[in-house]
UniProtKB/TrEMBL annotation:
GO molecular function terms noted in the UniProt entry: methionyl-tRNA formyltransferase activity
Protein name: Methionyl-tRNA formyltransferase
Catalytic activity: L-methionyl-tRNA(fMet) + (6R)-10-formyltetrahydrofolate = N-formyl-L-methionyl-tRNA(fMet) + (6S)-5,6,7,8-tetrahydrofolate + H(+)
Biological role stated in the UniProt entry: Attaches a formyl group to the free amino group of methionyl-tRNA(fMet). The formyl group appears to play a dual role in the initiator identity of N-formylmethionyl-tRNA by promoting its recognition by IF2 and preventing the misappropriation of this tRNA by the elongation apparatus.
Pfam family, one: Formyl_trans_C
Organism: Caballeronia pedi
InterPro entries, sorted: Fmt, Formyl_trans_C, Formyl_trans_C_sf, Formyl_transf_N, Formyl_transf_N_sf, Formyl_transferase-like_C_sf, GART_AS, Met-tRNA-FMT_C
High-level lineage: Bacteria, Pseudomonadati, Pseudomonadota, Betaproteobacteria, Burkholderiales
Domain Formyl transferase N-terminal: 6-189
Entry's Gene Ontology cellular component terms: cytosol
UniProt KW Transferase keyword: yes
Family that this chain belongs to: Belongs to the Fmt family.
The Formyl transferase C-terminal domain, residue ranges: 216-313
EC number: 2.1.2.9
């Protein structure tokens, strides 16, 4: 009986944990899991293990959490120890999914059959840190998963295979993330099965045409600019759910807006002005059209449907959100 393919896995969040779980369930050997160091999280800011670490510990897999893999970085000793551990761990291939650390060429050269990245976009569109958010924000009709042979560039490696999914009108980053995580898990298992059988995976160089970069989401992007068209603001709200949460400022309070629909309205009101208030929705004038807000959250409160929100925070026609 041939030995199962040995996979070193590197990843951190839920997206990566789904792939690791699928790889483990498919019977591949996972001699080492790399994930980011525990981070403070929650109200108490207690040190919290990543989803990938939690799964690995539950299954008894060996875990390493170096702060860096770059000898020339801030943590040269940790990097050197992690690289030594990688070299000492017999394996065939490395799989990387949303790991969050830069892998220098020295690391990519260690796995005999290379390193495969699970990337949540249809490359070369949306290379970089936040491909799911940016695809929704930009109004893309579809997105997907690309398996890519890693090189030292930022998501520039040759493409192995892809899977596609439409972006639905009500998709948020949360719903699309979960769908893509499952697709990525299925795609990597299929790819590893082919690699185990054939010894290699054909790949195609990425075209340079159509390259875009998905910059990391910054908290200051969450403020809604009511001078923009309503259709763009609706996409921003869906793209920023669950993080960082889009908001408008009303009477010096940051009101998070979790769900909204663009509507045709020509009230002539200044952008940011509330033109209608009902249990069905709060209509706010925008630079083009209007936005019907249907799920909101006041500071220190919970996400609420508009009817419940208004019961605890009455709003009136004519009130105006601040222009950012």
């Amino acid at each position: 009986m041939t030995q199962p393919l040995r996979v070193v896995f590197a990843g951190t969040p839920e997206f990566a944990a789904a792939a690791l779980a699928a790889i483990h369930a498919a019977g591949f050997s996972v001699p080492l899991v790399l994930t980011q160091p525990d981070r403070p999280a929650g109200r108490g800011m207690k040190l919290t293990a990543s989803p990938v670490k939690r799964f690995a510990v539950e299954k008894g897999l060996k875990v390493a959490q170096p702060a860096s893999l770059r000898r020339a970085g801030k943590y040269p000793q940790e990097a050197a120890e992690a690289i030594d551990l990688l070299r000492a761990t017999p394996h065939d291939v490395m799989v990387v999914a949303a790991y969050g650390l830069i892998l220098p060429q020295e690391v990519l050269d260690i796995p005999p059959r290379g390193a495969i990245n699970i990337h949540a976009s249809l490359l070369p569109r949306w290379r970089g840190a936040a491909p799911i958010h940016r695809a929704i924000e930009a109004g893309d009709a579809e997105t997907g998963i690309t398996l890519m042979q890693m090189d030292a560039g930022l998501d520039t490696g040759a493409m192995i295979r892809e899977a596609r999914t439409p972006i639905l009108p009500d998709d948020t980053t949360a719903t699309l993330h979960d769908r893509l995580a499952q697709m990525g898990a299925e795609l990597i298992v299929a790819g590893l099965s082919d690699l185990e059988r054939d010894g290699a995976l054909p790949s195609t160089p990425q075209p340079e045409d159509g390259t875009t970069y998905a910059e990391k989401i910054a908290k200051n992007e969450a403020a809604l600019d009511w001078r923009r068209p309503a259709v763009e603001l609706a996409r921003q709200i869906r793209a920023f759910d669950p993080f960082p949460g889009a908001f408008g400022t009303l009477d010096n309070a940051a009101i998070k807006i979790w769900s909204a629909l663009p509507v045709d309205a020509s009230s002539g009101a200044e952008p940011g002005t509330i033109t209608e208030v009902s249990s069905d929705g709060i209509i706010v004038a925008c630079g083009g059209g209007a936005l019907k807000l249907t799920q909101l959250q006041k500071p220190g409160g919970k996400r609420l449907p508009v009817r419940e929100f208004l019961a605890g925070a009455p709003l009136a026609k004519g009130q105006r959100f601040a222009l950012q």
